[in-house]
Design goal:
One of its GO terms (molecular function) is alpha-amylase inhibitor activity. InterPro entries: A-amylase_inhib (IPR000833), A-amylase_inhib_sf (IPR036379). Inhibits mammalian alpha-amylases specifically but has no action on plant and microbial alpha-amylases. Strand 4 and strand 5 form a beta hairpin. The longest helix is centred in the N-terminal third of the chain and has 18 residues. The protein contains 4 helices and 7 strands, in the order αααβββββββα. By secondary structure, the chain is of the alpha+beta class. The chain has 2 domains: 32 residues; 78 residues, Alpha-amylase inhibitor (Immunoglobulin-like).
Length: 115
């Protein structure tokens, strides 16, 4: 059995802790899906959006199911959402810093879910 002082010494190396934390962050960033990598083309014109400070509402006016994501001027990440005909989905808003929706893009939901 290890003594408490030995455990304290093992856990008190700031440089080691910083290196392990940095390595973990790099792995997480490399594994995180990229919204830009998952986008394909402009969403059909029958898919419309309205934006407000807190939310961007997207309505599927098409006769078929669509998978879309929202593009923002500052590159803010938005998930890929599958929207049935006549249904809507709500995305995070654009905030108060002058960031606005620039358009809707089709996307692959499997590519952004980590599958």
């Amino acid at each position: 059995m290890r003594s408490m002082s030995n455990l304290m010494k093992r856990g008190s190396h700031p440089a080691t802790l910083a290196a392990v934390t940095a390595a973990g962050l790099l792995v997480a960033l490399a594994a995180a899906p990229s919204a830009s990598a998952a986008t394909e083309s402009a969403a059909p014109e029958c898919v419309q959006y309205s934006q407000s400070w807190r939310y961007t509402d997207v309505f599927n006016g098409c006769g078929e199911t669509v998978a879309v994501t929202v593009e923002y001027t500052n590159g803010q990440w938005a998930p890929c959402r599958v929207i049935q005909p006549g249904q809507s989905a709500t995305f995070a808003g654009y905030g108060t810093d002058g960031n606005y929706v620039t358009g809707l893009r089709t996307c692959d939901p499997a590519a952004t879910s980590g599958a």
